[in-house]
UniProtKB/TrEMBL annotation:
Domain N-acetyltransferase: 22-159
SUPFAM superfamilies in the cross-refs: Acyl-CoA N-acyltransferases (Nat)
Keywords: Acyltransferase, Transferase
Classification via Pfam families: Acetyltransf_3
Family annotation (PANTHER family): BLL6696 PROTEIN, N-ACETYLTRANSFERASE DOMAIN-CONTAINING PROTEIN
UniProt-listed Enzyme Commission number(s): 2.3.-.-
UniProt xrefs under InterPro entries: Acyl_CoA_acyltransferase, GNAT_dom
GO MF term (any one): acyltransferase activity
Protein name: GNAT family N-acetyltransferase
Species name: Amnibacterium endophyticum
Enzyme class label: transferase
Length: 209
């Protein structure tokens, strides 16, 4: 994994990569690949997630880039090691003064789900959050009805903080949002667990240099 300690802004675009996944700063050239990813398994049709339809991907990229320019989001295209886009993820709800952020607005093509892609991406994002940006807490949120997402977040080692009832208006219903978090004191154990899950050596899990 490669990180740059000189990059301190929560919303700065930065490439994060390992041998398992590449998180490329989101750009317009990712549109075709992300449209294909959204069509993979028709993940955009699942009602408990917020995945753009294939023809809506360019507009979603523009929306996320506008939030990045405003300093409120750091968006990535989630890619395979060969650069093939398979989804999106972000840092959002950035709170630099309190050294907190949320990893969210994440989705993956059906073929990339239940593989090493998600835990490897989260390892990269969490390592940057805790070891480069010096966060004291990282949140992860999901729809109450998205049981697959809830299981995946818990499997990372995050703890459930609670449920925000009637939190968001969604097409056809009002969403209850489940809030999870990882705090700085928990990060070493979470990191070890993720590295073991991915078959990575324990001794390589320290702070980047």
């Amino acid at each position: 994994m490669r990180f740059n300690r000189a990059v301190r802004s929560f919303s700065d675009p930065v490439l994060l990569e390992s041998g398992l996944v590449r998180l490329e700063p989101l750009a317009r050239h990712h549109a075709d690949g992300l449209a294909a990813a959204a069509a993979d398994g028709d993940v955009w049709r699942k009602w408990s997630t917020s995945v753009p339809a294939p023809d809506e991907v360019p507009a979603e990229i523009e929306r996320r880039l506008a939030l990045q320019r405003a300093g409120t989001m750091a968006p990535w295209a989630t890619c395979l090691p060969d650069g093939t886009p398979v989804g999106m993820t972000t840092y959002m709800n950035l709170d630099a003064p309190n050294r907190r952020l949320e990893i969210g607005s994440t989705w993956l093509a059906a073929s990339a789900q239940r593989t090493a892609v998600n835990p490897a991406a989260k390892l990269l994002q969490l390592t940057r959050a805790f070891e480069v940006l010096d966060c004291i807490a990282v949140e992860l949120r999901t729809d109450w009805h998205n049981r697959q997402s809830r299981r995946a977040i818990a499997a990372l080692g995050a703890k459930q903080d609670g449920v925000l009832r009637s939190h968001m208006l969604r097409p056809g219903y009002v969403r209850d949002t489940v809030v999870f978090s990882i705090i700085a004191s928990e990060w070493p154990a979470v990191r070890l667990g993720l590295r073991e899950r991915l078959g990575l050596p324990r001794e390589a899990g320290g702070a980047p240099r």
